[in-house]
Amino acid sequence: SETDRAALRLTEAITRVPDGHVSDEDYDAAAAVLTPDQVSAVAWLATVMNAFNRVAITSRYPVGN
């Protein structure tokens, strides 16, 4: 759905953050479809998952089967 695509685009932008911030284009695309609460939820979920993944990679946490 359009909502799913907007959430995924924002999540990918948050994960990459190539220039130190999410581009206005990526943020505006999400904000055009998602409510402010949804934008906030996507941002928090992406941030938490990225933090967990970075800790897991750094500590060499084994991937389960």
Labels describing this entry:
mainly alpha
Protein described:
- By secondary structure, this protein is an all-alpha fold.
- The protein has one domain.
- It is built from three helices and no strands.
- The chain has helices at 2-16, 24-31, 36-58.
- The longest helix is centred in the C-terminal third of the chain and has 23 residues, at 36-58.
- The N and C termini lie far apart (31 Å).
Annotate the secondary structure layout.
Elements lengths: L1 H15 L7 H8 L4 H23 L7
Helix pairs in contact: 1-2, 1-3
Short description:
This protein has 65 residues and is mostly helical. It is 71% helix and 0% strand.
Figure out the total of helices.
3
- The beta-strand count equals 0
Distance between the termini: 31 Å
Q: Specify the overall morphology.
A: elongated
Q: Give average pLDDT, whole number.
A: 89
In the residues, how many domains can be counted? 1
Uncertain parts: none
